[in-house]
Structures are given as C-alpha cells and as structure tokens.
Specification:
The complex is a heterodimer. By secondary structure, chain A is mainly alpha-helical. Chain A has helices spanning 18-44, 54-80, 84-88, 91-116, 121-145. In chain B, helix 3 runs antiparallel to helix 8 (136-158). The chains are: A mainly alpha, B mainly alpha. The interface between A and B is large, with 46 and 47 residues.
Chain lengths: 148, 192
C-alpha cells in the first residue's frame, strides 16, 4: 500500500511517456466535460443554440459531461500521485480542488435546476455565467500550478 | 542566414522577449489556450460525436454543425493567436522539436480536412439529416477530425517533454518555468 504512494516508485515517474499520456487524457476529457457544460451555458445566456432549449441540450450532453468528469478526475488523481506533497502545498492546486468541488455541486444542483426550469432570463444568465467562470478558473488554476 | 538565426531574431524581438519573461502574461496566455481547448475543443469533439451518431441524436446534424460553428470559429482564432504568442516566445526551442513539427503538420492537415469535406459534409448537413443513415463520408470526416485534433493536442503536450540529443548550442536566454517533469526527475533521483 505504501509502495503505491511513494512517488519515486510511481511508474509515472519512471518512464518517459506515461506522465504526458495521463496529461493528454486529462486534457481531452476535461474538454469533453467543460465543452458540454459551456454549450448549455451559452444556450442559457442566449448567445447561441437558439433552436434548442437549455433543458434539451442538458439532456443530450449530461452523459458526456459525466463521463468526461469521471475520466478527467481519475487522470487528475493519477497525475497528483506523482508528487502529492508538492501539489498539497501549492495554493493554486488548493484553489483548484475547492473550486472543482464547488463547480460539481453547483452543476448538479442550482445550474441543473435553472437550466430545466422556466426561470427569468436574468437568473438563467447569472447561473450560466457563474458556471462558466468556475470552470474556466479551474483550467487557469491547473496551469498556474506549474508556475508557482 | 540559417533557420536558427531567423528564429533567434523572432524570439529576440522586444515583444516576444517580454512575453517570455513575464511571470504573469505567459501563464495567462497558456491558460487561455487551454480554456479554448476546453470550451471549443469540446465543441469539436461533440460535433464529431454527432456525425458518428453517438451524441445529440435528438438534435439534427444541421442544428449541431451550424450552431457550433460561430463559437468554434471564434475559439479557433483565440486558440491560434495564443498559440502564436506561446510558440513565438520560444521558437528557437521549438522549430526543430519533432513534436512541434508534427503538430504544425497536423494543423495543416486540418485545413486540408476542411477543404476536402466542406462540400459533402459540413456544408451539406440538410442532406445528411434526410439520409436514412449517416453517410460513410460524414463518419470518415468525423473520425479523421477526432484523430487530427487529438493528435494536435497530444503533440502540443509532448513538445514540453522533448529532450534534445545534444546540449543546446546557445545558452538559454530565459529561465524555464518550474515544470512538473523536471521536478519529478529530481525527486526520483533524490530518492535513489
């Protein structure tokens, strides 16, 4: 058990290809999750997808969003395991974890409720804006981790 | 004047030097680049999945392709602009990096892809919607698009992991940011 958490014996630290591969899976699947959420958000904001309702887009994308989230978080945990101590003490990573938990809870509670209900446009726009801002900030914090 | 001299001159311009040396601008542009991948890359992915008949089944192909298009266009412009800023700032390190060269080749193939499939697929979505099944050409376009974009993203990531076989002929004109893989190697070495 301890061996699995020792960064020096972690396979990702001992070959050339597995770390970047984990990153690529992380990026491709967060694109799937955030891209589908952003599609619903842009519809809620009235900026596009006028032929569909947010509720319909949500229904069509939710499985892909969920799959994307599960895989990207799994790949993220694998990446985290390469150097847990450094991640733990990094403020950007700490923000990322908190924002991620908030964003997921928000996505499946308030955001979903507003998307499927007949809320006034202002409420819809605000709910979508909060969602977009949260997810974009999570992407930013992932990059800033490497620069702090 | 060699390629190296030309790229050195580009990288040494005041603009790209400032870009490279800024502790804030460089990571912000990189984050924007990744944000575009997240939002607009996700849209490319979903368009391809629609053409394959795996996602958005209740939404016509025309609606998916047409409504994603303006966002993907804007996204591509921002993504490429950020890419030029990031690449230009370190072009001396990149121009002979095989992953960078593969990435540029794949980007060129994206243009070829758009040119080849525009008439029968992306500009012909109403016919696709009327067809009893999604035409093979549309599926081929989707598979190729998936391959190209996943390739571009992966090669982009791998650029950072290329190790030059010989030491760089010139001293590095800038300090590299602390990147995880360097740290990991140090970590592994210290443990041994």
């Amino acid at each position: 058990m301890m061996l699995a958490f020792d960064p020096a014996s972690n396979p990702l630290n001992n070959n050339e290809w597995s770390f970047p591969l984990a990153e690529c899976i992380h990026i491709a699947t967060f694109a799937m999750a955030i891209g589908t959420i952003a599609t619903v958000d842009l519809c809620m904001m009235g900026l596009g997808f006028r032929k569909q309702t947010p509720a319909q887009l949500l229904k069509e994308t939710s499985l892909w969003t969920l799959a994307g989230l599960i895989i990207t978080i799994s790949a993220g945990l694998v990446i985290f395991s390469t150097d847990p101590v450094r991640y733990y003490y990094n403020w950007s990573f700490r923000y990322k974890v908190i924002a991620l938990v908030l964003a997921i809870v928000y996505n499946y509670t308030i955001h979903r409720k507003v998307a499927v209900s007949d809320s006034p446009p202002v409420v819809r726009k605000m709910a979508a804006l909060v969602s977009l801002a949260l997810w974009v900030s999570i992407v930013f914090s992932g990059i800033f981790y490497a620069f702090t | 004047m060699s390629f190296h001299d030309i790229f050195q001159a580009v990288q040494d311009t005041e603009f790209f030097t400032a870009m490279r040396e800024s502790a804030l601008v460089y990571p912000i542009v990189l984050s924007l680049h990744l944000t575009c991948i997240a939002i607009f890359g996700g849209m490319i992915l979903m368009t391809d999945l629609r053409l394959l008949g795996w996602a958005f089944q209740s939404v016509p192909v025309s609606d998916v392709v047409k409504q994603f298009r303006p966002f993907k266009t804007v996204g591509l412009i921002v993504m490429v602009s950020c890419g030029i800023l990031l690449g230009g700032a370190k072009i001396v390190d990149y121009y002979d990096n095989p992953y960078f060269l593969i990435k540029m080749t794949l980007l060129l193939l994206v243009a070829v892809h758009a040119w080849v499939f525009h008439r029968d697929v992306y500009g012909n979505t109403q016919v696709i919607d009327r067809a009893p099944a999604i035409p093979a050409k549309a599926k081929a376009a989707a598979y190729l698009s998936l391959f190209l974009w996943l390739g571009i993203m992966s090669m982009g990531r791998w650029i950072a992991y290329y190790e030059r076989p010989e030491p760089h002929p010139l001293p590095r004109s800038h300090a590299l940011p602390v990147i995880p893989e360097l740290h990991r190697q140090d970590y592994a070495r210290a443990q041994r």
